What we know:
The protein has an 8-stranded mixed beta sheet, with helices on both faces. It is an alpha/beta fold. The protein has helices at 9-13, 28-43, 60-70, 78-84, 94-107, 125-131, 160-166, 179-206, 214-234, 240-247, 253-261, 267-284; strands spanning 19-24, 51-55, 73-74, 87-90, 115-118, 136-141, 152-156, 172-175. Helix 2 runs parallel beside helix 3 and helix 8 (179-206) packs antiparallel against helix 9 (214-234). Strand 2 (51-55), helix 3 (60-70) and strand 3 form a beta-alpha-beta unit.
Amino acid sequence: MASPSYSSPCHRESRSPPMRLGVLGVGELTESLLVALARGSQREGRSRHDLEFHLSPRNDVRSHRLGWRFGAVRHVSNVAVCEASLCLLVGVRPDQLEPLASELREAQILKTDHHLMVTAAGVPLVDLQRWFAPARVVRVMTGLAVSEGQSALTLYPEDLLTRDLLSPAVKQVIAFEEESAFEASMLAVCINAWQMAQQQALLDWFQTVPGMSGPQARQLLMAQMRDALALMEAHPDTPPGELASRIGTPGTWTARGLEQLGGSEGAHRQWQNVLEQLRDELQEARPSKS
């Protein structure tokens, strides 16, 4: 879906310092994204004073920490944040979105120039657009590891302003043409935690081997993860399964392991089953239309 051509004061503001970004809901995810955005912007040559964060009043610990690190401004209300910023990152929980929108509607603060980027699972864009009208609304998602600067950010629908504004925080921005694909992509954010839990299970096993210490096992596993990622990046047009088959040639220990992990009852299928179940639950969690 192509992003419509439009002129927004928010877009012009992002081109000239200081660029203001308002945050409604300063939770762990939004804090991590702001940290990444501040670092990324500085890498691109912007000074600390070129980027201003304007924060909603709740969560004193996080807002004061962001104030100390990046000079973030803490406001007395959500309405005050909207008055100070045209670009808004909305990080409240899904069940808090409609009450937040009601608060802003009652204040008649939202204008067509406001641009909202909502990080919430299970709430369709059509509902967000209705609740926060007349502001422009897009959906975005990333993971807590975004603060390390290597994450992806997913987006629906494609939006040049959001891409331009948030791309310094992440390694890549992936936009989807279908909302169902965006919803499913949120589950990819869960996978890094699953993979680390899987690595812990492997680490526990390797530490049972006589003569192998915990730090050695950790270094070994991290090296193998980097190797797998390097192969995938070096061969972007080759399916990962094909790369695995090339390594696990018939008769090798790798091939024997692949045989046991594959199949209808293997670990690979179990991962797919978990994704299917969670996608169904995500769709069922959508709020009913009013």
